[in-house]
Design brief:
Length: 387
Amino acid sequence: MGRCTRAVLFKNNLKFNLEQIRKFVEPQTKICIAVKADGYGHNALLTAKLAHETGGIDYFAVARPDEGFELRNAGFEEHILLLSPCVPEDFESLFEYKITPLVFGEEYISLMAQAAKKVYGNSDKKADVFLAVDTGMGRIGCYPEEAGVQAKMIADSGVLNQAGTISHFAVSDSLSKENQEFTKKQFEAFKLAVENIKKQGLTPGICSCSASAALLNNTDMHFDMVRPGIITYGYYPDEITESYLKSVKKDFEVKPVMALETQVVAIRHFPKGKSVSYGRTWTAPEDTDIAVLPIGYADGLLRRFSPGLEVTINGKKYPVVGRICMDQCMVNIGKNNKNVKLFDKVLIFGPKESGALTTAEDLAKIGKTISYEIFTSISKRVERVVK
Ligand SMILES: *Cc1c(COP(=O)(O)O)cnc(C)c1O
């Protein structure tokens, strides 16, 4: 047991976000919900279940083969897109589980075709793949100029079916003119890739470029399918915030899904001058009381959050002081605090209805990171509780 530190998932908010996404994009536009990394730490199966119930969601995106297997084993029949390349040892399982990999490059496509042949044998069925095109992200994919030739490799394999063509934007979450121009360039490069595929007499299948940021801000770039991740979980991608969307008259809103909470497990009197934790980075400037919390960096409360982090106890904020340890951290609650009692609930971050006064976005700022990393850092030993 270790129930005192838990990630509470507000199911209704997740459902609300999924409905907002479905409402925001054109009815004919397909939606692929990114549930990789266990739904950004929010439980992939819960996310998939609510997406299934929402309806009008065709694809789930995962990053590792076993994330796809988990969804299939749970009985989901939606398409599953594998966003990251994997190794040949996994290729056959992908097709056995009807997972759609991204492919590019001669050797990778040829090994994928061999695996598909093994799985489909002499039946005339083909295995779906998406061709990945690097239009400027600088991660995976063929270059737009190569897209025609690579599409032909897929077609010539006789056993792979190009069900889609995909790319990813590098700076669509930024509003600077320069970055929006770069996004436009990527958009044009993608169209060139599609032209090159068509010139070979082939079809690109489902075309898709937009994750959350471009979904919200570049509505002319949706093509056939959008791939929202972070907005599903109730946070905005960098500069594409709620207030920005209001300013450009876009009707869209999401609600944070997760609250990270723990409990006070000790309250200790500290005389003036007594130090707290490793490195003795903080010393009581006067007599005070210190609350001990059973949460640390092994739970995802990163060491670099202190100093800076403030937690919420019964509607008031209190600072974490001294270094965050692996399993514990300390909070300065001041002398004779009537608001904080032993075993009271402590909120690290969460949506309004959780009572938290800070969000994962606030935490991200303190840790010089993005909300995505806050969520995916919350480790396995933190129990997820659905509310
Ligand atoms: C993670 C990912 C997404 C989702 O990104 P968000 O910014 O969370 O919406 C979409 N597409 C690809 C290829 C990804 O890797």
